[in-house]
Amino acid sequence: MLTLDMSNTKTPENELALNNYAAGVGAAIEQATDETAIVSARITMLADVIQIQCIRADDTDLVDFFVPERLHSTIVDLAQAVDAHVSLYESERADELRLEFANQDEQDKIIKYFELLSYQGRRAFPTPDLYQGAEHVDEFTCVNAIGFLHFALKKADEFGWRDVE
To answer: Using CB atoms within 10 A of its CB, is residue 69 exposed (0-12), middle (13-18) or buried (19+)?
Structure first.
């Protein structure tokens, strides 16, 4: 059974993991100057947000997620591409949406797409190191990696990503 390091404490290990993750995301944003690269980076961000939430919950059967509002069009386009039935709702946070899959089979369609990206080496940046060599997932890293993606999407829009969509 997967367990979390619930201490939510900053350590040199998780700080390094987050810095490495931020560097990869930042490089992908800077290099994403055409629509194909931007879409790839956005899908990779969505994959990480969803997969981190599954890992944190120790439940790969989740059908309800909180995602950055700036990924709205990415979610809609990807769901349509893989024929997944999803619903999007406002969240209590202004910059966030609640993504709900109709059922586990619909969630699997998206997850399989994410897995295909990884298998084919088409992720825009490497996954975050949520374990840092430990047996348990680091809660601090999980929370802050998702928080960083919110920030990175805002900055990417300042780079002009919204103009490309």
So the answer is: middle
In whole angstroms, give the CA distance from residue 150 to residue 20.
17
Q: Indicate the pairing of strand 137-138 with strand 86-90.
A: unpaired
- The domain ranges of the chain are 27-157
Burial of 35 (0-12, 13-18, 19+ CB in 10 A): exposed
Its pTM stands at: 0.92
What pLDDT digit, counting tens, does each position of 68-109 carry? 999 999 999 999 999 999 999 999 988 999 999 999 999 999
Strand pairing of 4-5 and 137-138? parallel
Furthest CA-CA distance within the chain: 44
Question: pLDDT tens, 27-68?
Answer: 999 998 889 999 999 999 999 999 999 999 999 899 999 999
Amino acid identity of residue 111, one-letter, is: I
| Spatial separation of the C-alpha atoms in residues 53 and 59, rounded to whole Å | 8
**Which amino acid is located at 35 in the chain?**
E
